[in-house]
Write a structure and sequence with these properties.
- By secondary structure, this protein is α+β, with helices and mostly antiparallel strands.
- Among the domains are: 127 residues, Bacterial muramidase (Helicase, Ruva Protein, domain 3), CATH 1.10.8.350; 98 residues, Lysozyme (Orthogonal Bundle).
- Helices cover 52% and strands 9% of the residues.
- The chain contains 17 helices and seven strands.
- A hairpin with a 4-residue loop joins strand 6 and strand 7.
- Helix 6 runs parallel beside helix 17 and helix 16 packs across helix 17.
- The relative contact order is 0.15.
Length: 338
C-alpha cells in the first residue's frame, strides 16, 4: 500500500496500549551517518542551523514500538473485520454529536469547498474518534524512527521529516513538542507534515493553522484537502453492484490494485457487471471487491470514492468512511425530524 499525505491514526488504536509500554531504543547519536547527512542537507537546501538541528536530534528517541506498529496496519484485515472497527454505534452517535456541535462550521465548509458535512465528520470519526485519540508519540520521534530505521519507506519518511521541520519553522513551533500517531500524523484530522504545509487551512482567519484544537481549522483543512484532490460537488461516491457474472476478464481486472476510475459504465456492463443505480454509460468508475465471511461484495467507486482514497490509499478505508458517513447522515436526519 502506498502511503498518502495523511496517515490514519485508527490503524494504531488496536495496538495503542501495547505501544505505550514498549521501550524505546537508545536515541540515535547525531554522529550517525544518515542523520549527519540529513542535517547537512537541511542546512544546505533550507538554511537550517546545523548546531540547532544537532541539539534537536540529540533529544530524539527511536521507538521500537513504532516499527512494530507500522508492520501491522489494520488495512491488511479482510473487509468484514475492518468494517467492524469503524461502523459502531458509538462512532455513529459521536458523529451526530460532532455535527450538531459544529453545524455552522460544517455548513460554511460545504458552501466554500463543496464537501458534504457527513463526509468531513466521518473522516474525523475514523481518524481520531472526533479528536479523542490524536496520538501519543512525539512527531519527531515517529518520523525519525521511520526515516532512519525503516528502510522499506525511508525515502517517504525522510521527506516527511523535512516537511515537519519546515512547518515547525513556518508556524513557529518547537519541533520537540507536537504529538501525533506512530507514523507522524498530526492533530484531529491526522495530517502528515506535507499535508499540513499544502492543505491545512486557516479557516477562521486568525493567521494560524491549528489542526490540534481549532475546530474551524480542522474542518476547513479536511474540506480543503478533498477539494484540492478533485472532489466533485453534489456527485455520488459509490454504488453496490447488483449482479456480476464471473469471467476471466473480470478476474484479471480485479487483480489490478489501482484505485483510479478506469472504465466506463458501458464497459462494465459489457464485462457482465450490473450496477444498482442508473448511471450515464460514459461515467468513469472502478470495480472493487470486498471480502465478507462467506461471499464477496462488489462496489463501483466513482471519482469521489477515489478522492477519499487520497486520504488513505486503501479501498477498505474509503468504503468505511463512506458507509460511516451514510449512517451518520441517517441518524442526524432522524434526530432533526419534528
Amino acid at each position: 500500500m502506498e502511503y498518502c499525505r495523511t496517515f490514519s491514526f485508527s490503524t494504531a488504536c488496536l495496538l495503542l496500549l501495547f505501544l505505550l509500554i514498549s521501550p524505546g531504543l537508545s536515541a540515535e547519536n547525531v554522529t550517525s551517518p544518515d542523520i549527519a547527512l540529513f542535517i547537512k542537507e537541511m542546512g544546505a537546501k533550507h538554511q537550517f542551523d546545523p548546531k540547532k538541528l544537532e541539539a534537536t536530534f540529540g533529544a530524539v528517541e527511536i521507538k521500537q514500538g513504532i516499527l512494530r506498529a507500522i508492520a501491522k496496519p489494520a488495512e491488511r484485515k479482510p473487509w468484514h473485520e475492518y468494517r467492524k472497527i469503524f461502523l459502531t454505534r458509538s462512532r455513529i452517535n459521536g458523529g451526530v454529536k460532532f455535527w450538531k456541535n459544529n453545524a455552522a462550521i460544517l455548513t460554511k465548509a460545504q458552501t466554500h469547498y463543496g464537501i458534504p458535512p457527513e463526509i468531513i465528520v466521518a473522516i474525523i470519526g475514523v481518524e481520531t474518534r472526533y479528536g479523542k485519540n490524536t496520538g501519543g508519540f512525539r512527531v519527531i520521534d515517529a518520523l525519525s524512527t521511520l526515516a532512519f530505521h525503516y528502510p522499506k519507506r525511508s525515502k517517504f519518511f525522510r521527506n516527511e521529516l523535512k516537511e515537519f521541520l519546515l512547518l515547525c519553522r513556518e508556524e513557529k513551533m518547537d519541533p520537540l513538542q507536537p504529538q501525533g500517531s506512530y507514523a507522524g500524523a498530526m492533530g484531529i484530522p491526522q495530517f502528515m507534515p506535507s499535508s499540513f504545509r499544502y492543505y491545512a487551512a486557516d479557516f477562521d482567519g486568525d493567521k494560524k493553522r491549528d489542526i490540534w484544537g481549532n475546530r474551524q481549522d480542522v474542518i476547513g483543512s479536511v474540506a480543503n484537502y478533498f477539494a484540492k484532490h478533485g472532489w466533485q460537488r453534489n456527485k455520488a461516491i459509490a454504488y453496490p453492484v447488483a449482479a456480476l457474472q464471473e469471467n476471466k476478464n473480470l478476474r484479471d481486472y480485479l487483480a489490478d490494485k489501482s484505485l483510479k476510475p478506469d472504465r466506463t459504465i458501458a464497459e462494465f456492463n459489457a464485462m457482465g457487471v450490473t450496477i444498482s443505480e442508473k448511471l450515464s454509460s460514459q461515467t468513469s468508475a472502478k470495480l472493487l471487491a470486498f471480502e465478507q465471511k462467506k461471499v464477496t461484495d462488489y462496489w463501483i467507486g466513482l471519482q469521489n470514492f477515489w478522492v477519499i482514497t487520497r486520504y488513505n490509499h486503501s479501498p477498505l478505508y474509503a468504503l468505511a468512511v463512506f458507509q460511516l458517513s451514510q449512517e451518520i447522515l441517517r441518524q442526524h436526519n432522524r434526530e432533526a425530524e419534528p
